[in-house]
Amino acid sequence: MALAKQRRIKTTLMDRPFTSHSPFSTPMTSKLVSLPVWFENHVRALFDVSDSDVDFEALFDATFAKDTTFVQNGTNASRDDVKQALGGQRGFSSNITVTFGEIIEAPLKDGDEVVSGAGVVAGKLRVTRFSKFLVHDVRQKTETSVFFITTIRPDPTLPSDQGQDNRRVVNNNEVVTNAPNN
Length: 182
Known about the structure:
By secondary structure, the chain is of the alpha+beta class. Helices cover 26% and strands 45% of the residues. The chain has helices at residues 2-15, 35-47, 56-63, 79-91, and strands at 64-72, 75-77, 93-110, 113-135, 138-154, 167-178.
């Protein structure tokens, strides 16, 4: 079942046309994907090193709001620091695999009202990176486990018409552990 879910997510991501406005554009008649699927698609795209022509800045901006709060292992991080760290991982890796565990979703409420298109997703993911560089004729592998609680909501500064998905991460809390290099 997990493999089928991975295939569906990969297909969903690849079926979305890339535009300069949003790499996850959908036709006007399309229904928005669920928040867990939205989150997985965006995270996978941020780590995808297979296409060097992809505009990482546009991917990052299509994922995170301009005022996103980032907390990693209890320490605040700036948007620019997170962007630089993610971009750096892409630059030094020949292959990156992102594997998700179960993701749970909860609606976001404003008082008693559920906020449309918004919610909190939480779960675990593992990032496996293989270096571009060989050490003793072997590619170095690094594994990172991330436990996340992420709030996603529509960005009021972006247009919500014309079929564009204006949802963005507004709060990202994560606990990150790195496994020793193999």
